[in-house]
Amino acid sequence: xxxxxxxxxxxxGQIGYALNFRIASGAMLGADTDVVLRLLEIPQGMKAAExxxxxxxxxxxxxxxxxxxxxxxxxxxxxxxxxxxxxxxxRGPGMERSDLLAANGQIFGPQGAALNAGAADxxxxxxxxxxxxxxxxxxxxxxxxxxxxxxxxxxxxxHNRALGQLAAKTGQPVRDIRRVTIWGNHSASQYPDIFQxxxxxxxxxxxxxxxxxxxxxxxxxxxxxxxxxxxxxxxSSAASAASAAIDHVRDWTAGTAQGDWTSAGIPSxxxxxxxxxxxxxxxxxxxxxxxxxxxxxEINEFSRQRIDASVAELAEEREAVRGLxxx
Length: 327
Ligand code: NAD
Ligand code: LMR
Description:
Elements lengths: L3 E6 L4 H12 L9 E6 L5 H13 L5 E7 L2 H5 L4 E4 L15 H18 L5 E4 L4 H10 L9 E3 L2 H15 L6 E2 L2 E3 L7 E3 L4 E2 L2 E2 H4 L3 H13 L1 H9 L5 H16 L7 E6 L11 E8 L4 E3 L7 H23 L4
Helix pairs in contact: 1-10, 4-5, 5-11, 6-8
Bound molecules: nicotinamide-adenine-dinucleotide and (2S)-2-hydroxybutanedioic acid.
């Protein structure tokens, strides 16, 4: 079997530095799948990318079939099977992710066009760079020959953060927590929903009875975790973001576990009243090929209001990038 070609943009950045080694080690696609890893950088990042490539070689990973470095997106994406679009400016203290719209939005149109020009027929794209949902929409809009569903925005970090908070509250191991959902935008408006969850033997709905904890503790802790990390580290999350990207692509390509689901930002088909075409986070399962939205969940009034608020923000972001001529 020929190696899978994986292109990481921002390959020399802090997420890239954590991500490359996990991909090369087989954590993303499995121990039997060889990978050619391509790092795409801007010219100023090329030297650091060369250093990373040297370290990847020095790690002697059994599944790493080669490392290539590019500063041209068209060349970097030619024949690519999986693209992780990480390269973008991170926010600093006091900024919202949407403050990055104008600066980072410019990156994703040309990259979408470059993917359209030459990526492999089975291309899958995960957008990590912020604001991830709207950047995914921009990239997809510039790639008319690639089905929109092949473009995802990463909300798996939010999903994992929710699992971490629930494990800490209940003392249950993360592996026994199921059916948590992140709805909406990867922003402070996101809605981490536990009404369908089970935490060990405990239904999430029974934890949700404590509305003060749910509204004033759990939801804001998950939704504002990115800012808390920036505050504490002086830089935005990196290793956990890389780990979430690995989880996202692994579940997308290998399939999700029976009886569970995960969260991903995907183009809405109108499910749960989310306007078509917005890249919103949903509860999803994968059969190894494509995500399917988990349909038929009962959405109570508490959840409805919060989903609608986050989706309204996505619609505003779409208007903003339309105004900027980015879509
Ligand atoms: P960083 O500044 O450390 O690295 C970004 C890298 O991207 C740099 O090396 C830079 O040279 C490169 N780059 C910039 N423009 C590029 C382009 N056009 N093509 C290729 N490379 C380019 O930033 P980071 O901490 O690695 O974060 C990257 C992005 O990921 C930020 O936008 C951040 O907000 C976002 N992020 C998203 C999530 C999420 O859950 N979706 C989580 C964490 C961070
Ligand atoms: C995160 O959630 O950690 C990232 O999106 C970085 C940020 O700006 O919050």
